[in-house]
Design a protein that fits this description.
alpha/beta, Rossmann fold, 6-stranded parallel β-sheet
């Protein structure tokens, strides 16, 4: 998985400004899209080859639909930047990374040391995901 990137308001964008999923189909040259909680990530699957950036909005920390969207996109082969935006908390970023996020743009900047500690907190994992880490049961019985 790619190196983790943190972006904050005012940072240079990686791609064109992200458009909504609804307007994405109308713009043949768009290379960045923003998924909102009610959007279906599967609508983007036929267009993954032209996307450089997919932002997934977390308007509130308790809304977990973005985790599913990230996993759907990564399992379908999307290898561009997948950025979690909005209310992204340090307690969530390790789990977001396991689902496929490789960039984070939280509304409130995170302390880099806290973020690194969050990524390093668990030596072993229990579920296979898109991050390539072997689950502990596979290590024990592999």
């Amino acid at each position: 998985m790619a190196e983790v990137q943190f972006r904050f308001r005012g940072d240079e964008p990686v791609a064109d400004p992200a458009v909504t999923v609804d307007s994405f189909g109308e713009q043949s040259n768009a290379s960045a899209v923003r998924l909102e909680p009610g959007d279906d990530a599967r609508d983007l699957l036929p267009h993954l080859d032209r996307l450089q950036l997919i932002e997934v909005n977390f308007p509130v920390f308790g809304d977990g639909r973005g985790y599913s969207a990230a996993r759907i996109l990564r399992e379908a082969g999307y290898d561009g930047e997948l950025r979690a935006v909005g209310e992204v908390l340090v307690d969530q970023i390790a789990f977001m990374r396991r689902c496929g996020f490789d960039a984070f743009a939280p509304e409130v900047p995170l302390d880099p040391a806290d973020a690194e500690a969050a990524f390093a907190r668990y030596d072993h994992v229990y579920q296979p995901t898109t991050d390539g880490r072997a689950p502990i049961w596979n290590l024990r019985h592999g």
